[in-house]
Amino acid sequence: MGRPPTLEDVARVAGVSRATVSRVINGTRNVDPAIQETVRAAVRTTGYAPNSAARSLVTRRTGAVGLVISGAGEGGDEAAYRRYVFSDPFFGRVVDGVMGALRPRGMHPMLMLAETADAREQVVAHLRQGIADGALLVSTHGEDPLPGMLTSAGVATVLFARPARPVPAGYVDLAHRDGARLAAEHLLARGCRRPVTICGPLDVLAGQERLDGFNQAMARHGHAYVPCAEGNFTASAGEQSMTRLLREHPDLDGVFAANDLMARAAVQVLREQGRRVPQDVAVVGFDDSSAATATRPELTTVRQPVEEMAGEMVRLLLTALESPEAPPESVIFEPDLVVRESA
Amino acid sequence: MGRPPTLEDVARVAGVSRATVSRVINGTRNVDPAIQETVRAAVRTTGYAPNSAARSLVTRRTGAVGLVISGAGEGGDEAAYRRYVFSDPFFGRVVDGVMGALRPRGMHPMLMLAETADAREQVVAHLRQGIADGALLVSTHGEDPLPGMLTSAGVATVLFARPARPVPAGYVDLAHRDGARLAAEHLLARGCRRPVTICGPLDVLAGQERLDGFNQAMARHGHAYVPCAEGNFTASAGEQSMTRLLREHPDLDGVFAANDLMARAAVQVLREQGRRVPQDVAVVGFDDSSAATATRPELTTVRQPVEEMAGEMVRLLLTALESPEAPPESVIFEPDLVVRESA
DNA sequence: GCGCAACGGGAGAGCGCTCTCCCGCTCTCC
DNA sequence: GGAGAGCGGGAGAGCGCTCTCCCGTTGCGC
């Protein structure tokens, strides 16, 4: 009794064929109710659990999907990158959304980090071996080669955010420009006269578009030029940018930060410098992450429905898996403005 | 050419047997260098990638380990629980440490959440089917039945934190009492006279031990009774607890919070109430998570080397996998005090 | 020169499952 | 009453890989 029971064992105990046991377990075809019960009893007494490797060998499905976080070109500090990834609430939300959509289907996400060229090769190699049924890819950098590598390796892939260069893979994304416009109009409506912005990294499309959208909306209302400091979506970048903007534009009265982490840092800097938020300076963030409600005052922010977007990624991947020949689908989500206390 | 190339195809192209190709790919035995090159060339021209399902079927190894986050008994709000898990930096650190140790071995973590009885059954069922080689389990609640379920299902398991009731599984843990003592002595050394503590949930061993260690150390120095408010390791709990302690003990001059998230919230409350940190009130946290350095002033805290502990879990699991009959091993880590600005 | 390792390669038996056939039976309909 | 459809079950062929045997070839010591 050393080895775990197999279908064969269950069949012998139940006095039926392997095929019948398989049918009962998978519910693939009608089986006589009495026999079904016999089989189920045999499964119970033997303590049988189907071997998933054997199953995937023939079904060509593993029930796993690779959840790949990719970014940081060469020369970056990998450890720092990992620290960034695991501390940014954004990725937790992605995982949450992915798991929520996977779970009812009995599937699981397999975490993969691709922060170096080597790691990327590894990820592609493993995925090509069929370790997972497909890949959900979140790139944190603009010119990530991974989407292209994955698709040309024949791995079913769905991306978070439209890739910089077109790739035959579906994606979900947010209408960043609209979100930034919402932020701009809200600041203006509150009477903000001297807005500034802490924008995201400009080599990332999302960073670019949030800045564009904000600037365009501001321009439409007579603010042709809005001072801007670039940050890389981290708290310390937000701190530095806010400090600089404050020094160069001491009369600023409104800040739009391209994500909540930077907005939060901006609020901290402002308060340390004696500015009241929102009375002296209004601050609007982006994402509506947990950082938004953890900040005092709570952040007014542009909501990006990350969990739903991640869930949609799963759905897109699953349909791509079902009909591999169909052209990739994509979905763009619309942001909302969530008004709280900071603006 | 529809189906992906198999070993057989490579063997045909290279003009050798399947076995030889397998040997070259896995480097299992000496193979004539010339033949090796031929085989490698054939692999390249065919674009061959070994099928991992077929491989695991015979090797009985998947290269995946389940990373299970478990907790929240019945009746809990699952969505809220997930939000908690994914926003607490602690779990990110666990994932980071696990991936760091798994990666050089070409393995991957498979994320599994077990926040309800159903989910627990699912997790056990999947793991029994061999979807992963073993499980790394992080329980957030004391009386979690999952460790027992897993071990009696024959799943190789390593736990983060010693389980409430003994289970035949290895674990890693921290000397929580020592850490709390460090915090107490530091507060005392700074001249703190009226300490209070925001302790963790008392149904979790870590919460209990941190409180005990703190109280014992305080008692040794003449503070027989230290006011305490219980929190569940979240920021909002920290906020409420601090507010209450401040109301009931307005003259407090030192706070020990059982984790950084609560310490951070405590700092915020204190400052909002006009107390200066650390001049009026010293605050010590626990964990040394990213929250510690994101707080202003930066948190003095007891360092829990979560990443290393998680890496050790992987190592323990791997050795358990190698020698299934050996008794489970465990490792206890020692905490350090990290002195920053808040105390 | 002979025996014996040791080496390098091939053949083939599974690993445990699914799924396509195929077959016998019953039921219906004319 | 007979034909045809449909249902429920079994037999068996793989899925693609690893690994144990087995065998021919060298190399070396005596």
Structure, explained:
2 copies of one chain form a homodimer. Chain A has 343 residues and is of the alpha/beta class. Chain A folds into 3 domains: 7-50, Orthogonal Bundle (434 Repressor (Amino-terminal Domain)), CATH 1.10.260; 64-173 and 306-332, Rossmann fold (3-Layer(aba) Sandwich); 176-303, 3-Layer(aba) Sandwich (Rossmann fold), CATH 3.40.50.2300. Helices cover 47% and strands 17% of the residues of chain A. Chain A is built from 14 helices and 12 strands. Chain A has helices at 7-14, 18-26, 33-46, 52-59, 78-87, 89-102, 117-128, 146-152, 176-189, 205-220, 235-248, 260-272, 290-294, 306-322, and strands spanning 64-70, 108-114, 135-139, 157-160, 170-174, 195-199, 228-230, 254-257, 282-287, 300-303, 330-333, 336-338. In chain A, α8 links the parallel β3 (135-139) and β4 (157-160). The first copy, chain A, is elongated and about 85 Å long. The model of chain A has no long low-confidence stretch (mean pLDDT 93). The interface between A and B is large, with 52 and 51 residues. Chain A binds a DNA duplex (30 and 30 nucleotides) through residues 6-8, 16-20, 22-23, 26, 28-32, 35, 50-60.
